[in-house]
Fold:
Amino acid sequence: MVTDIEAKVMQAKRASIIIASVDTATKNAALEAMAKALDENRQAILEANVRDVELADKLKRKGELPQALVDRLKVNDSKITGMISGIRDVIKLDDPVGETISALELDKELELYQVSCPIGLIGVIFEARPDVVPQVMSLCLKSGNSTIFKGGSEASNSNRVIFEILVEAAQSIEGMPEGAFQLIETREEVKDLLSMDAYIDLLIPRGSNAFVKFIQDNTRIPVLGHADGICHAYVDSNADLGKAYSVCLDSKVQYPAVCNAIETLLVHENVVEKFLPAMAQMFDSAGVEMRCDGKSYAILEHIEFLKSIVRATEEDWSTEYNDLIISIKVVSSIEEAIDHINTYGSHHTDAIITENLYNRRLFKDLVDSSSIMVNASTRFADGFRYGKGAEVGISTNKVHARGPVGMEGLLIYKYILLGKGDKVADYVGPDAREFTHKKLDKNISEIMDIE
Structure:
């Protein structure tokens, strides 16, 4: 007997074959319908989100839900406008499906094309953040992928309303298949989802490090994402301190509950006496608790009005706070800073503030992270800000996709060989023909597309 979740997954898998071949004009029309539908249904979304936030606040007061998760859950009119803008940015992107990546002549009139194509069926499992639904659905639709969504129970009302609005709008466009996008809502269904490697081609988890690690440890399906967001800012001995104050404050305070906010500040000993007191006052005014190593604590402990100075422990260097907390360490060299980042960081996003070209290059070459910022906030590590329209997540993987992942992370490729009745037997033996293996400046769409 087929369960409800199996039925949804199987329907989405069948639809993935159809949506992979939908033309660009139809996909863009569906995306525009989705954007308009969100705009027309703002009140329904806000009302659903109020119900979620009220319940989340009760759980927070009981100690069952962290503040960071409550913050991610909230949707306001501005966020809905951002959702709409994100969908329309995806419309502007070129359709990546069917693009010729390479073309090679194996022999005369025997040509091999490497062509981009959708991955197939994507499973997206996320905590809070209802804006994940339009972000991921728009990118999956444009890249020709079906999608199964499983959001956190804390955002169930918001997720359901947004999902239903988007699906109804997309399916109102002729040529869009039914069932390409599915929503599952119960915790029990997650275990079933993780076992469906016969149908689901890729999982994208978005949430806490414990949540992502659970997904990675309990499935055979390939997982794209990151478990931790332990990001650093390093203030070099050759830093412009004005830039340093701006970058470090923004990287921690602008939105502390996200994976690209810094958790550790590293300061070179040659500038720490001049830089740190003023930086600490800025952090203190913003409500940031500072967890300091011995050298930084000795500098700051005499500043009477600082309210939140405590001594750091070894655990702090490997902790993702997702809150107004920062650990601070004084280093004696850029090499020590790089070693600290590579040892304790999560290979997500790290920044250097320096005017020294050699140090900039050294940091860029040796820090093993998916994004490196030079004199810029770590908060720029984002699919929308990187010009991807939106993102499905940020990956610290080194296979397939890395950093903020847009549509390129939802594509794979296939090989297409165009021949004239050719056979391998002609290329073996004493009188074998030789391959030419000549690169071609050709596009398969010029050959195979029907006008």
Notes: The first helix runs from residue 4 to 19. The chain has a mean pLDDT of 92.
